[in-house]
Amino acid sequence: MKILAGLDVGHVNTKAILMKGQEILGYSTVPTGYDVVAAAQTALRHALDTVGVSRGGLAGIVTTGIFRERMKEPPLDITRTVADYVADAKGASFLSRNSRTVIDIGGNIQKAIRYDQNGNTLDVIQNDKCADGLGIFYTTMAKAIGISEQEMSELALQSTQKVSVAIHCAASAESEAIDLMCQGIDIADVAEAISRFIAERVAAMCTTMSLEKEIVVAGGLAKSKALMKHLPSLIEQDVSILSFPEYVGAIGAVMSY
Amino acid sequence: MSGDASTNKRLDWTRAEVIVAGVDIGAVSSKAVILLDGQPCAFSQVTTRRPKESSFKAITAALAKTPLKLEDIHHVVATGRGRTQVPFARKTITEIVCGAAGAVHIWGPTVRTVLDAGGQSCKVIHCTEKGRATAFLWNDKCAAGIGRSIETFADLVKKELTEIGNIALQTDQFSKLSDFCAVYAQSEALDLIRSKVPLEQVVAAYHYAMAKRISTLVARSGVKKDFVIIGGLAKNPGIIGWVEGILKVSRLANKPEWDPQFIVALGAALIADAFYRQQQ
Amino acid sequence: MMKEGPDTIIERFHSISENPQEYAKSRQGKGQLLAGYMCTHVPEEILYAAGIIPVRILSSHVSQAMTRSYMHETYCSFSHDCAYQGLAHNYDFLDLIVTSSSCIHMGEAFNVWVRFAGFQEKSFLIPYPHIIETKPAAAFMAASFEEFKQFLEKFVKKSITDGDIERAIRVCNQTRRLLKRLWEFLRSESSPITGPEVATVTLASQLMDKEEYNPMLEQLIQSLEVEPGKAPSGVRLMVTGGACDDPGIFDLIEHLNYSAKLIFIDSCTATRYFWFEVPENRSDKLQAIAEGYIRRIPCPAKDNVPGTGEKKRFRFIQQFIEEFRPDGVVFLYQRFCSPQPMDVVALKPILDKLGIPSTELELDTTVPITQFRTQLEALVEVIKGVTP
Questions:
Q1: Nearest-by-Cβ selection for C370 from A183, A203, A204
Q2: B105 falls within a domain
Q3: What is the pLDDT of residues B2-50, one digit of tens each?
Q4: I need a surface site. Which of B87, B131, B208, C12 has the fewest CB within 10 A?
């Protein structure tokens, strides 16, 4: 059986996944940075290393993500590129056969895609420009507080008092998060306000497209329990988190080989 | 005088009559300055996490370079956004007044306009020759977080904060980004990377956009010479170069012995000194 | 009947402004019709004449992103919040929603209610001129009010007589006179009532049946006249700007690290609402209302004398500065508002000439309180020169 690689080169992180048929063999994530080709090579190499396969053992590489066209440069030698939303739909459908909508919360962009039982795209929406960079913001805030993103989510779940940050954009939200901290407000409550803000913007995006059940969530921020706590009530629907949430695009790329 | 904590070993603390401290709890970093009889003796800077904790960390780091203890300090003035979270402060004074005092102390009585370009906020302060603030303009919400956005941007392109400003000066050929909002500028910069625009051009474009935003604020408040820039962004040559270029006003150069991030804390310490002497 | 002290009466006003829907529903329960209005350019007199109580729509102060799908991001938060109130069904019980054409942002909030919140059949938009200082303006307004009156007559299935309108004019004028008297207390160095309290009492006037409100306010004024004044303070601060229904901002001004007093507010949730009178006993009632509303302290969205570009509002502001003697001015406006900050640009040089320092606070659904505190304390420090 062929071993295929999927590369999702996003604004913030580059994700590589290796699959053999329906089986996920290995994966790796590296920051994209400025040299996107180098990031892709590194991610691919790390993934190959975890499985003990060489480049030569790959039957093909499909890329997706915002920088997918840059992957056509040598020496990556990719097979083809596929649009992010197409890959998201295919990946989500593969990971969850009953799903018909995926909400992908990425580093810079969020999207929601509706698809049929075969993962073929039916409709797509994306956040407005003011809501760019929510994932980047989450990372920045965790750094500012001096904790990991995982810790930030756990902290948010311990919140006892509801406070709010500005809803316009990540810059305003950060400014007010810091203001709250300077008022002496508990960090847990601030972390919760940040999580809720992101969920609110994602939910606001979702009102412009009808969401068909089953609804699943992908992207790095899907791993935040605090965020996921708010999303269902805001969109007034149940959601489930996909396994390998940040690899959904890369998996979908493989599916599109 | 730079780095995390340093001290002026030439001063003898045992002979000092007035020992004071100024603590500036900013959004991004917390700074402490200790004066012995009006002379700077120790400084420190720590990343601001929770303001109360950070205030202790900052003063402890400064004290650690001296034989002094917190109880030896006669007066402490706290300033900055987190100033109400400093339990050991005797008085709190806003960074507007402290910035003016510190700037005139460093650059002299010709200073009339101080731009404090920090991590989260930008302020334009007008002052007298004695360092008294007479008017100020705070950034509008859309211009919040410019300093921090440059830090985030440096992270995204995997460059150090200390080098990003110099990279920005490597070219003046770049396409313009939205200059009214850091979120738009960041998004558009990421887009430039997608189009294989060389790194220096992307970095230059981002710095120009942020400098433009800051300049709009300064222009709204008005600039009277002599003009100085303090705060973290005063150390970013890309920002400084463009701000001067857009406003067509040159600022007085940074003093080599003074890190511009410490000037507000210095102002707070000078005010603590004055308060203490007044009480004697 | 036992005379209530001022604190008790103020608390009643405060409680009503905190729960405007509860109050409105209680009046509806007594069989009265209610109309929500989104701009103070709506001629309340005509609603009163039709037997309808006007209730101003203000913010819920709920931080939400839902309205971003209905209105552009860069519309002010106040308009987003008012739109949200409709979408959240907080005001479904209203019989009618009315607005006058004024600023775009509030116009959009009104549209959201009409199109998406079920008010299609119970709404009315009053065309209202922007350039008020012109000869045709009064006639335009009177004609517009006539259309509104006819709509209301059909709505309540009853004709509105001149007598009805004259009675309504008197009730509204009475509110205006009483409020003016209330604000006059703040001229004194030792006023028996604080600025934030006056602001709360004023806000209540936009939310209550004026026939109930007026006697309550009269009682308050009487009790204040015999109340000892509060201690004077060093720094007198005046607020000028747009709508502000967040009492926290006004409380902040009086709870700084320094002693400061709030002594005047030029905004449509404060003095701009009532600092005028409609001429009484005129034969043409609607023309009288038009004339009265033209004499208001102008909203920046409607303040432009053709030919000269002069701002009539600034004449009022200078008059208030003379009478109320502020040491500093706080500009208060919604983030993304256009007319208010444009006025600030023109007003600042006037304040500079008068030697009055100022600072600008941008309102939003959520506000950076420590930043506001810093700005206000810096303003006081600049005024007082606190350092040795």
A1: A183
A2: no
A3: 445 666 766 777 788 899 999 999 988 999 999 999 999 999 999 998 8
A4: B87
A114 in Cβ contact with A123 (< 8 Å): yes
Q: Is residue B102 part of a domain?
A: no
Strands (DSSP E) along C41-81, which ranges?
52-56
Query: Within this chain, do residues B274 and B240 fall inside the same structural domain, yes or no?
Result: no
Chains touching A (3+ CB pairs < 8 Å): B, C
Same-domain check for residues B210 and B270: no
* Residues B224 and B165 both lie in one domain: yes
Look up the domain containing B245 and give its range. 112-251
CA angle at A35 for the pair A32 and A37, rounded to the nearest 5° = 85
Between CA B117 and CA B235 the distance in angstroms is 10
Rounded to 5°, angle at Cα B144 from B138 and B150: 125
Asked if the Cβ–Cβ distance from A174 to B196 is below 8 Å, we say no
Q: What is the pLDDT of residue A88?
A: 98
CA A117 to chain B, closest CA, distance in angstroms equals 33
Do A136 and B186 make contact, defined as CB atoms within 8 angstroms?
Answer: yes
Size of interface A-C (CB pairs under 8 A): 53
Number of compact structural domains in chain B = 2
Task: Band the pLDDT of B233: cuts 50, 70, 90.
Answer: very high
CATH for the A3-85+248-255 domain, from 3.30.420.40, 3.90.79.10, 3.50.50.60, 3.40.50.300: 3.30.420.40
Type of residue numbered C25: K
What is the 3 state secondary structure string of C142-155? HHHHHHHHHHHHHH
Measured in angstroms, the CA of B273 and the nearest CA of chain C are apart by 10
Report the pLDDT averaged over residues C364-382.
96
SS (H, E, C) B28-69: CEEEEEEEECCEEEEEEEEECCCHHHHHHHHHHHHHHCCCCC
- Report yes or no on B54 lying in a domain: yes
Whether B118 and B246 map to the same domain: the answer is yes
Amino acid (1-letter code) at residue B99: G
**Which of A11, A133, A172 shows the shortest C-beta gap to B144?**
A172
pLDDT by position in tens, chain A (length 257) = 899 999 999 999 999 999 999 999 999 999 999 999 999 999 999 999 999 999 999 999 999 999 999 999 877 889 999 999 999 999 999 999 999 999 999 999 999 999 999 999 999 999 999 999 999 999 999 998 889 999 999 999 999 999 999 999 999 999 999 999 988 899 999 999 999 999 999 999 999 999 999 999 999 999 999 999 999 999 999 999 999 999 999 999 999 99
- Residue B103 is assigned to a structural domain of this protein: no
Phi, psi dihedrals of residue C324, rounded to the nearest 5°: -105, -10
- How far does the CA of residue B155 sit from the closest CA of chain C (Å)? 27
CA distance B127 to B134: 5
With CB atoms and an 8 Å threshold, state whether C66 touches A208.
Answer: no
Residue A233 contacts C where some CB pair is shorter than 8 Å: no
Amino acid letter at A113?
Answer: I
Nearest residue, CB atoms, B157 vs list A33, A67, A170: A33
If you search the block for the tokens 């992307």, which residue do you land on?
A: B202
Identify the residue among B190, B195, B200, B202 best suited for mutation to test binding to A, counting A beta carbons within 10 A and taking the highest: B190
- Gap between the Cα atoms of B214 and B144, Å rounded: 10
Confidence of residue B1 (pLDDT cuts 50, 70, 90): very low
| CB contact (8 A) between residue C73 and residue A175 | no
Residue B205's DSSP bridge partners are none
CATH number, domain of B225, equals 3.30.420.40
Instruction: Based on the fold, state whether residues B71 and B13 are members of the same structural domain.
Output: yes
| Residue in B266, B252, B263 with CA at minimum distance from that of residue B230 | B263
CB contact under 8 A, C387 and B271: yes
Amino acid at C219: Q
